[in-house]
Design brief:
This protein is an alpha/beta fold. It is built from 12 helices and 12 strands. Helix 3 runs antiparallel to helix 4.
Length: about 350
């Protein structure tokens, strides 16, 4: 049975909803997310809008809870209703992907509420048992680059793993120093981002250095439209994995080479139907998965950790608990694998 069928008919009662701001400064980057809280029958369902544009977030907070969400629904009926609404009533989204990010916040909150009203957990309804979650830490290492953030975390948390954003400033000696740690699971080239704060120029020599120095690592989002980059990675195409281009099963079908592994960011899919169809398809085709984070500041982090624990707990999941990515990271953070600690009801970790 398709996984979505297990969720689609869950009854859902929404009486009203509220929006709440979370914020954090990442140096020059201001991160604002919006928590969606749906209320009904004495329960609250939560989701997190991970849109990256601060003005998009301020606009929806200023507008307040103006969407017509109250009513008696099934989860599928509510999802179809969401598809008819303008989720950016105050201003158009800065990025096209923002529509899916915001819709996922409401879909997440709706599932959390419906499951709580039913007295059931997500794993129970899907017939899956969450397992201990392997996770890694995602870092950028600056320009000029420094391996110190990696080495400090290894010293504090032996066994920690990494997903690192490669930069053209990484010369051969620096790449070799990182490789000597034996702790890098994924190298992210960010070659599919355009017009964003995280764009990275295409550098075929960087691709070649990383592919050769990290023979066991996944090579994420290279710019294979560039002839030099494609030539550099031609011997390593079985290790190429994708993140930014993957928003649906159709995007998987459109890839030039059938992938062995993909990065899954749930909010990119917008809806439960799209996400669960993707999970089912990858399982049928034998495509391995690992989860990706989006600098969540609230309930969304636990939700993506729970999904990873249910569907791909053994992948190099870029879903480390908050704190590992702080410049001055604290002591006593959870070790990998992470206890999934699902809430007895709803779509949340405890």
């Amino acid at each position: 049975m398709p996984s979505y069928d297990a969720l689609a008919d869950l009854p859902l009662t929404i009486e009203d909803y509220a929006l709440d701001e979370r914020s954090r400064s990442f140096g020059e980057f201001e991160r604002i997310t919006v928590t969606v809280a749906l209320h009904g029958r004495g329960e609250t369902g939560l989701g997190e809008d991970v849109n990256y544009d601060p003005e998009d977030q301020r606009a929806v907070l200023a507008a307040g809870p103006v969407l017509p969400l109250a009513g008696e629904w099934t989860l599928d009926g509510f999802s179809r209703h969401l598809a008819t609404l303008d989720l950016f009533p105050a201003r158009p989204p800065a990025y096209e992907a923002g529509v899916d990010y915001r819709r996922w916040a409401y879909e997440s909150a709706a599932a959390d509420l419906a499951l709580r009203q039913a007295g059931r957990s997500l794993g129970d309804v899907l017939g899956r048992e969450p397992r201990p979650l392997r996770f890694g830490v995602s870092l950028r290492l600056g320009d000029p680059p420094s391996s110190e953030p990696v080495l400090r975390r290894i010293a504090a948390y032996p066994g920690i793993r990494f997903k690192l954003d490669a930069e053209p400033c990484w010369d051969g000696a620096f790449v070799e120093a990182l490789a000597e740690t034996g702790a890098v699971d994924v190298v992210d080239f960010k070659g599919k981002y355009r017009g964003t704060p995280v764009d990275v120029p295409t550098d075929p020599e960087l691709y070649r250095r990383c592919a050769e120095a990290f023979p066991e690592a996944w090579l994420e989002d290279p710019d294979l439209d560039d002839d030099g980059a494609r030539a550099a990675l031609a011997p390593h195409l079985d290790r190429v994995t994708w993140d930014a281009p993957i928003h649906s099963v159709d995007d998987v079908d459109a890839l030039d080479h059938p992938p062995r592994c993909l990065n899954c960011k749930p909010s990119r899919f917008g809806s439960w139907q799209g996400l669960l169809r993707f999970y089912d398809t990858c399982e049928e085709r034998g495509i391995a998965l690992y989860g990706g984070g989006q600098s969540e500041l609230g309930v969304g982090r636990g939700q993506i950790q729970l999904l990873a624990a249910l569907f791909h707990p053994d992948g190099p999941n870029d879903v480390a608990p908050s704190g590992f990515d702080w410049e001055e990271f604290p002591e006593g953070l959870p070790s990998s694998p992470l206890d999934p600690a699902p809430s007895p009801t709803g779509f949340r970790r405890e």
